[in-house]
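Subject: mismatched residue count in predicted assembly?

I count 823 residues in my input, but I want to confirm that the predicted structure covers every chain. Input:
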Amino acid sequence: MESNQSTGKKILVLFFHPRYEDSHANQVLADTALSLQGVRFRDLYEIYPDFNIDIRKEQECLLSHDIIIWQHPFFWYSCPPLMKQWIDLVLEYGWAYGKSGDKLSGKSILQVITSAGTFEVYQPGGRNRFTYRTLLSPFDQTVHLCKMHYLPPFIVPGAPRMSAEQLNRYAEQYGKILQGLQQEKWTMEQLKAAEYFNQINF
Amino acid sequence: MAGSMLQNAVIFLGAALICVPLSKKLGIGSVLGYLLAGILIGPFVLGFIKQEGEDIMHAAEFGVVMMLFLIGLELNPQSFWNMRKSILGMGLSQMLATSLLIFSLFYFFMDNSIEASIATSLSLAMSSTAIALQTLKEKGLSNTQAGKSSFAVLLLQDIAVIPILAILPLMAVVGKAEAAEHHNFITDLPTHYATLVILAAVGLIFLAGRYLVNPFLRLIARVHMRELFTASALFIVVGVAWLMEQVGLSAALGTFMAGVLLANSEYRHELESDIEPFKGLLLGLFFIAVGSTINFTLILESPARIFSLVLIIMTIKAAVLAGIGKVFKLKIDQNILFALLLSQVGEFAFVLLASTRQMGILEKSQSDYLMAVVTISMILSPLFLFINEKFIAPYLGVKEAAAQKEADTIDEQQGVIIAGFGHFGSTVGRFLRANGVKATILDNDSDRVDLLRKMGFKVFYGDATRVDLLESAGAGKARLLISAIDDPQRNMELVDVLKKHFPNLQIFMRAKNRYDAYEMIDKGISRIYRESLHSSVYLGVDVLHELGQRKYTATRKAMDFIRYDQEALEKLSRERHEKDRYILSVKNEIELQERLLSEDQLFSDLRSDSAWDGERRKEGL
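Triage response: the counts match. Full output below for your records.
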């Protein structure tokens, strides 16, 4: 499950889903991540069912990787509670941010999000009124505060109603994203210019 | 071949070392193994031991005394008091009914004198504490209905020895001077003083047990010499036994009382572990001696007569017991066990028969004859118990299970077995069941088994360490087994059996405490659940809350502590091997505790994170 002999950037997938067994979309995506060499996949609801996150261990884990993926469903326009707990506990003051808090500086974070809604719904005038990017700005800022790069998020929209082929296409894209990041296929400028990873050419 | 003491020791120990493991392997229990060893080395087979067998037997009877002390230790005064009804009800009716029937047999059908019949009937009404309790303990049945009932009956028999010994001299045909075999302090006193002395002795034990022994043991423990503690334990037992003998009471009863009084002592476990090996050895010696004293010449002269008498007497005893069991509403299989457990004539009969002979109530030939009957019954009863366990009890258990065939096939797919369904096992089982996992349950309490079957559980009745029972419960196909047996030793035995016969089965183990957990780690078990961990830590959470801490903060600390404690467990378990040999010794237990406490210091140093801590951030700004 955790193979680390990589060429290129080291990738850590932090996966959060309180009902993983019922999320077909996340299973397919997770399988993709698990199948890749040099990608470490951590299923945090499985590791910390009691929300008692081992802070030191998580920090060590972050230090030994270059790119961190937050893979999670878009619950209530945000992340599942364990992920917020993780952010609260692991990104410590004096370590990740604040005075002499620069341990994560220069790393990148990518959010990979499964959503019930679509881009059409997530826009001004749509039912959800705000874009994904707007709603994700707290995460963007969190990453920024920790002196890391916030990569354009990869959205899997309409995940619950998606057909198997569609889902496989997204999984394939996910795999390409991970491999591309591993091999530094894109420059930071290219990445930051895009609003969503969905728009980037791979 | 009357050898030296060393030679005798070699013969006894050697015979035991060969026969007992063999009989255990055959599943017939250690008691029968010892008896067979005795027969083997006795005058009629190999002839290593001749007449001295009888003397050794009398010396080894002290094992019974020690056993009762140990039983007392496990029974505090409160639970003893709770048993008074069954002791009086079951015990007294067993004594009276059995001796009445045996009396009729001897008086009306065998033309014995009225005195001889009374003496014989009282002697033969006794059952063997040694065999019954040893068997119960070995099979882990002490807490079943049958076990508790047997214990109550045996206890009353022990008490009854006192008045019986007092009555016998009254019937003596020869002069009183000869009758005073036990020449003790009490016989020299007038009767009303005697009562007073007895009361004083009992009072002395009571007061000493309550107020003297604990401070005394504390003093001894502080010297940190293990053998001194052992000496103190032996001193207590031997002292009480001696005192009781001086005033003419049963030593077994006296030490039992002393045990009950010390049941709440903080040194209970040390006393137990100190006396235990002596008891085991002496009891073994006693059984061997019994085996070696069997007079085969006598038996061979009239085998039919002797064996039919044995069978008649055992039948009477078993029938009376079964009747009592019925009145006291024991379940059928428990009742059979109860009746068989106590159907033999016990070691007290040797004492009683010997004194009746000395008093001239019985002639030597008669008493030899009866002694042979007693011994044969002692040999037969473990055999009957074995037959019951193998062929009767399983049948009684399986009969009711046959109706639920359909449910069985579903259960096997889940493949979860729970061994032991007491407080611990039942909580696990209920939780699993509430989540749709139907575990197969192994339990040796038939009342509970009945209830569980009524509730639709799939239950196998019997000793969970039996390979055949495990096999039929599906251990070969199951995924995992939860070992939730209360008795740590049996829990450990189960692990050995599982590792040997079902190596692919995952084991989830209940552990009483960290010391048991250490042993389990040594055996290569990784999933260990200590009873004393979660509930105590969460009690601590509520205390912190009561003292003003916020619940969530305290709960996070608790979870950290549990994680830390697991790590410490593994760490100390490794370190343990470098130093200690006597894990259970007082000194080392304290040493381990000390190491644990100093380890805890690291925990408090390490575990302060800055989660949600606004103060630290303000300082930084």
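The domain at 11-199 of chain A is CATH 3.40.50.360 (Rossmann fold). Marking this ticket as 'not a bug'.
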